[in-house]
Sequence to fold (445 residues):
Amino acid sequence: MYRLLLIFTFAITLLGSSCNDPITIVNTPDEEIDIIYTEDFVVETKTIVGEVSSTYNLGVNFSTYLLGSLDDPIFGKSTSNINIELDYLAGLPDFTDAILDSAVLIMDYDTLGFYGDSTAIYNIEVRQLVEQMNVDTIRSDTIWQVDPTIIGSRTIRPSAYDSLTIASHLAEGELIKIGPELRISLENDFAQMIIDADESNYLSSASLLEFINGLQITATTDKSAMMGLNLNDLNNFSGVNKLRIYYTGPDTTEIFDFSFTARSASSFTHDYTGAEMEGYIADENHNGNDFAFFQGMSGVEAELSFPNLEVLKDNIINKAELVYYSIADPSEMNVINDPIDVATVTYINEDGDRTLTTDASLGINPGPYASILGGSLELIDEPNGIYQTSVNITSHLNTIFNSDNLTTNVILTPLQRSERSSRSIIFGSGNPQYKPVLKITYTNI
Fold:
């Protein structure tokens, strides 16, 4: 608990308070309407086990896929692997009389997914799946069977910002500069299997998936770190992501590119054993007034409740804004540890299902998201790493006030949580200066 105690002690030294008095606005000559702005509504916090997320869903446009392992004393251990399927980028292969040169797996970096120690070294391995991912929805806790044989590996300290210089096979070894991407050389035995395969395996995408079910990419790191890969060529339009085969044909050096299908999926694990946060999820009343936690992937979430809102049930909510404060450790060097960049809000509806608040749903369509819901970070104290986040829940409160079941609990979760590895430590209701508040403007009726 040493690090959390340090954070709490630091926060207590920043005492301060503010209040806002009610104001009266005369709307018409005949009557007065009281518009009341208050910060007195209580927000209670606790940390809950996160809902399992989807990392592939038919019709959903995922972009960032996470690879690596995070291990810190507060949030414990989190890992992410990547599973992909092969397809055709353009046309079907013809490996008649082909002589193999080499094969390489190429993937585009996504800087939004990088988190943790930027100096970490990744030991990356590639294996074949022994079962197909032939489903419309893939949960993040799905475990795929793999062939233990390593068909490709690389040890690397990734740089998602610097270009690469490679020897071009098609230009007789000429050095060329390309954009930042992850390149993993594959074993010749695997590549030769592709070259030697009967042409019946390449008649269609379906026959290719019968031949090669898919690939799994894993990574161990020497430090707590995770990288992001952008496997969505619909977004970058570059066709970067591919399995490239270099070979010599009857007359000249050739290449053939296998693309990836849209059915790529991450697999997450979370282990809180021994972490400082473990007590918070083992007992929902454990120091909930000190801190609450939420994180990306399928990690823990923060549940916030507003126990005194019944007094507003017969009033019109003009604006309701949830404001909370988070902290990043400013002393860590070479570490990307900013809190979650954009948060969204869900709740349990009358049917017992998790759903977005009305405000969050409006933010997604037509967007842009943060302009309607809010939820973006604002750094308010750079030396001490204090951030403020404001989230609009106006429509949500009006919705629940008009329902028979007054459920005021909401759950904080990262926007696109299965594509984010970041995490947030937020101050609880016991913090004198940085406690979460619910600011409401309402009309008496």
